[in-house]
Specification:
alpha+beta, 50% helix, 7 helices, OB fold (Dihydrolipoamide Acetyltransferase, E2P), 2 domains
């Protein structure tokens, strides 16, 4: 019984440590999750200073953190990411890109020239061979290899990629 009284008497130290840990993690991640948990810890500390029992402090901290995660975090993330460039980059920009086969592409390899002008090593997505001049679309990037499949409407695309 004396141990529980000591824990309740010095719970404010635990709350401060927890808040500092959460805020430190938040500065490293910038995902607003640990910020909300830290603010829940502030609510737990405030309830401790108001004289609430430890079990109530934990419930208050958890409820405030959950409420902030559900209500405050989404608009904060939208505001934080408002200035980001919406253009896709890297691998994301290549998925779905059109191209033309330069050297026969099969399950083991080949080459394609993509719409952005780059020539990539490529493999067919299925066990077929795609002959040069056939229009393809990138379905996946596997390391430095584009996984491609033929496109149905080749005439319009071949006009964009003269041989």
């Amino acid at each position: 019984m004396e141990l529980i009284q000591n824990i309740e008497q010095f719970a404010w130290i635990g709350w401060i440590v927890l808040i500092l840990v959460f805020f430190t993690i938040e500065t490293l991640t910038l995902e607003m999750t640990f910020l909300m948990l830290g603010l829940g810890g502030v609510a737990g500390l405030a309830s401790d200073l108001a004289g609430a029992p430890l079990w109530l402090q934990v419930i208050i901290a958890a409820a405030v953190a959950a409420l902030l995660l559900l209500v405050l975090r989404p608009p904060l993330l939208r505001r934080l990411r408002r200035g980001e460039d919406p253009a896709l980059s890297n691998i994301d920009a290549l998925r779905g890109m059109l191209g033309v086969v330069v050297s026969t592409v099969g399950p083991m390899g080949g080459q394609v020239r993509l719409a952005n002008g780059e020539t990539w090593t490529a493999r067919a997505a299925t066990a077929i061979e795609i002959t040069p001049g056939v229009a393809v679309t990138v379905t996946l990037i596997d390391g430095a290899t584009a996984i491609v499949q033929p496109v149905e409407t080749t005439q319009a695309i071949q006009e964009d990629f003269p041989a």
